[in-house]
Amino acid sequence: MNVRIDESWKKELNPEFEKDYFKNLIEFVKNEYSANTCFPPGKDIFAAFDHSSFDETKVVIIGQDPYHGVGQANGLCFSVKEDVSIPPSLVNIFKEIEQDLGKPYPKTGNLERWADQGVLLLNATLTVRAHQAGSHQNKGWEIFTDKVIEAVSRDKEHVVFMLWGGYAKKKSKLIDSSKHLILTSGHPSPLSANRGYWFGNKHFSKANEYLKNHGKKPIDW
Fold first, then answer.
1. Model confidence, pTM
2. First to last CA, the chain
3. Do residues 118 and 59 touch, judged by C-beta distance below 8 A?
4. Rounded CA separation 24/197 (Å)
5. How far apart are CA 194 and CA 198, in angstroms?
6. DSSP state, 73?
7. Which domains does the chain have, with CATH numbers?
8. pLDDT, tens only, 184-206
């Protein structure tokens, strides 16, 4: 099974690539991409791993599904391609960073700049059919991405996990809280944020403080 993924991750995840569920998953994805419009583009399915190698990963942010609108998804959770309007959840993320760190609101929603600093922007499901949210859920992606979270928890130390919303919070059971920092809050979507479950969580300053305290370079959010 030839999966295009950064070599440092292959060492951690190679056993998964040989399992039946993963082979079935890849077959499903190939068929979906040949028969339908799907996102992100095939070359970007594993983009999160290519931008943030296993060795360099310092922060993990967990999303659920890629964006399913045309031209949005680029393989990183919450992120969109250059020149695409910034989605509502990401607007609220940027607003919180502005309040928390005093950083100006960015011109683009492309979060590659975070990923290249060691922020693993991991969706639980890595693909989706156009305009059909959740269409590739329960096909095997979640098994795989749970293994990714377990591998980071098991084989690294002092990583910050940001779990936003009920779905992401359930992943806390996969993480060893004795050697990592788990930050939880409501989801940044307008529905949650407007009810007071997102703004003021200060996750970005808390993450940087933790990284500095453990001898790691903070993230330029």
1. 0.96
2. 36
3. yes
4. 38
5. 8
6. B
7. 7-214 (3.40.470.10)
8. 999 999 999 989 999 999 999 99
